[in-house]
Amino acid sequence: YHILLSLYLKPPSPHAVQLEPALDLLSKHGSRLPATSTLSLIPDDLPVNSLESYFRGRIRSANSLVNESRIVAGLRKAEQIAIAARLNIGDSEINGQGGRNRHVTITDERHCFVCHKKLGGGMRFGGSVVAVLPDNTVVHYGCLNRALGQKKADG
């Protein structure tokens, strides 16, 4: 479109300037043209009000880009919220007991999946520090890396 506009406004010597088709081209496709080179082609004696539709198109195009980026940012934020909710609450487990919000009961009879030692530890207060894998397997926190390695080898 830029070449056509330049032919309308700066034609070769035997031809005359064609303002009407140039203004029509600017009003229909002006937002697709680079602004600096387009405005440099416009004659200095052309009234600004005749370029109103060109400027409206440029403003509309700029606004649609801004609105599109706002929509994309909103969608990304909604996706992050959904991921955080799935991580914290879980969505595939029965009674919503998934993600980080689930609980596991540790008894004296329960054993670590990796080292097979008791998880309860028989302590009067508290017990061992444990980690719960996504499939609800309970391991000592110190055994976690080995448990993840075993799960990858098995799975």
Automatic annotation (TrEMBL):
Q: What residues form the membrane-spanning segments? A: none
What name does the UniProt record give this protein?
Vacuolar sorting protein 39/Transforming growth factor beta receptor-associated zinc finger domain-containing protein
One Pfam annotation reads: zf-Vps39_C
Q: Which GO terms describe its biological process?
A: autophagy; endosomal vesicle fusion
Against InterPro entries, the record matches this protein to: Vam6/VPS39/TRAP1, VPS39/TGFA1_Znf
- Ranges for domain Vacuolar sorting protein 39/Transforming growth factor beta receptor-associated zinc finger: 102-146
Provide GO CC annotations from the record: cytoplasm; membrane
Q: Which residues form a coiled coil?
A: none
- Its source organism is Photinus pyralis
